[in-house]
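Entry:
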Amino acid sequence: MKFELKDFRNAGRLLAGQAPWVSLAGAITSIDRELVIREQETLAAAGHAPRGGQKAMNSLFERMLGEADGWTHQPRLFRSHDLREWKMDFLRDRVGVEVSFNHAEAIPWQFTRLNIAGESELVLPESRIDVGIVVTAMRSLKSWSRMDSAVGTFDAFGAWLDQMKPILPIPILLVGLDSTGWDPSAVFQGTRVLNRG
């Protein structure tokens, strides 16, 4: 799969050649049309597939960024019982990753979570980060996999990142997954509302 990058506060330079970025970029480029379709079919056979492809994409990342490659999945940020549910998607060598195919209203929280993981002294020491990465869909992937029309895309994430600059000191690399050129697939049923792509 191809991808597009938006660099915020020199995150790209900080990540260049580093093991977490090499691993993540390798996982992304290994994803192709057939792999996503097979993942959706597997989820559907188990009764777990939504109408769009967001769950299949999340499932692929969960499998590809495993402990064998040094990643921690869903590390807790806080010891406090009240904040116990705050977790990142993935962590490796002080690089935090959020894989986001969520409702567009959740976009600022993806950046906030990474910022807290890098800036708060209350975050568990083993969950602190120096750089964050957010992976999301370009319009092409959202449309191709018929994700819910409310799912935020790379453009919206980029606009939020620009607006949040005064309150985000942590370097963040925004990664947009691009499926331009992939033939349509009937495996994705989509939602009843017209997908605005």
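The beta strands are 2-8, 72-73, 90-92, 95-99, 131-137, 172-178.
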